[in-house]
Fold this sequence. Notes:
Blueprint: H1 2-16, H2 21-26, H3 33-49, H4 51-58, H5 64-77, H6 88-99, H7 109-142, H8 146-160, H9 164-174, H10 176-200, H11 202-216, H12 219-230, H13 236-265, H14 269-288, H15 301-309, H16 325-328, H17 332-362, H18 367-397, H19 402-425, H20 430-444, H21 451-458, H22 463-492, H23 496-516
Helix pairs in contact: 1-3, 1-5, 1-6, 5-6, 6-15, 7-8, 7-10, 7-12, 7-13, 7-14, 7-17, 8-11, 8-22, 9-10, 9-12, 9-22, 10-11, 10-12, 10-14, 12-13, 12-22, 13-18, 17-18, 17-20, 17-21, 17-22, 17-23, 18-19, 18-20, 19-20, 19-23, 21-22
Amino acid sequence: MECAKAAHAGVLGARLGGIGSKQFLAAPGVYSLRRRKRLATGARHIDSSSGNSSRNVRAGTATRENFLSQAQVISSEESLDFTDPSSAALAAREWAVSTAPGLSLLSSERIKVAAMLAFGMGLCNAVRVIMSVAIVPLSATHNWSSGFAGIIQSSFLWGYLLSPIPGGALADRFGGKSVMGWGVFFWSIATLITPWAASRSLGLLLAVRVFMGLAEGVAMPSMNNMVSRWFPSSERAKAVAIAMGGFHLGNVSGLLLTPILMSRFGIDGPFYAFGTVGLAWLSLWYMHISKDPQNHGTITRNELLFIQNGTDKRKVTARVAMPPFRLLLSKLPSWAIIAANAMNNWGYFIILTWMPVYFNRVLGVNLKQAAWFSAVPWATMAASGYFAGAWSDLMISSGMRVLTVRKIMQSIGFLGPAVALIGLNSTRHPAIASTWLTIAVALSAFSQAGYLVNYQEIAPSYAGVLHGLSNTAGTFAAIVSTVGTGYLVQWLGSFQAVLLLTSGMYIVSTLFWNSCATGEKIFD
């Protein structure tokens, strides 16, 4: 590779007049005398007749497009293997593509993918939190206890527990686009028929909630699969942060719009509204997004090369055989991810499911105010998650070890909420409680730049399956925390024990992550 790097410097310099012909001829990695003579002739021509151009290049006025086009012309004229890692052409391509203009995330096709993922993940969360608000009037109407209300809310998770592993395997096999699309279709239908099911029987309502959970269980693995296909490694934390920012804003929209829609259109209003939006999103998804950049109709060649240059050079092929579950579960880094996901979901679902009830019953605010107090932290989480992603990418780009960055991000993501929940437990003032809750949720978003991008780093070929495994563990933890919180509150009469227990679990999980995680690929 050192020869290739030197050769690309000589090739590009000679073609652009940046160095003299003698310097180029001395560069290693130019493989034949005939090739050297041909390129030396071009270099002498540039040296003699393009002095002004040379000065312009040295002054920095040559555009990056020129570098890119020259690298590709060299490759075609010299018949170098553009895919051979030992060739000068690949070295030239790597340099030229990395400096080409128009490849910033905000002006690319990648941002469209990230935005659609964010919108889809937002819908995923919005439709699930409708019940978190609706459970209060429903419990009052049907005289449900806190324990029984927890069972109703957790019924979504029963289905969510079953689908992440097969969803991840399907995403690895067929691509995240199709699996995500079918998931959105089915959970939108389930959302639309929830009012009908509730009017028929409690059993039918539970069945629809389980079906909704089954459909939503494929969202996270599909999102991770799309990110691994569409984004170079230097942008993946930001891409995940954008997608998860939408996920968290889904909480905001669900918590804020549900009371408004219920007051205007009754209990059925939010279910019909969000279900319809899901189907509208689906049409845009299939019209404008492809499963990978190679099959995208409007992507530029520069952007495609930029993505390919930033991903593993070894092609990740679709797996037909059964995923190697035993191998995946035999390594401690896999368990570090699984434990982190479980802990993240434990705390996440306690806050998501029970905070409206906490503000209503413990702090004495009405339902609409409780929704506002509960929604503010999720908006902050979207912003802090993007900051964490951008910061982690910057640290890695500056040369910091991937593992060090992941440990920093995950430690902030767990120790921050641990401290904040203790603060939340110590106050009975709604504004102060909301501040502590905001700190807890905002800092927990740093986990997105910790365990949530680690799948692609340790197992790029099995990122979807590994995400499915960890999501299954996380869902089980979410079920236990959701149901357990209801019964603990009913038994003890307060949320204090739940918050302190969760804080202690965050600390233990941080220690386990820092002891067992890695930033290196361990599964081919």
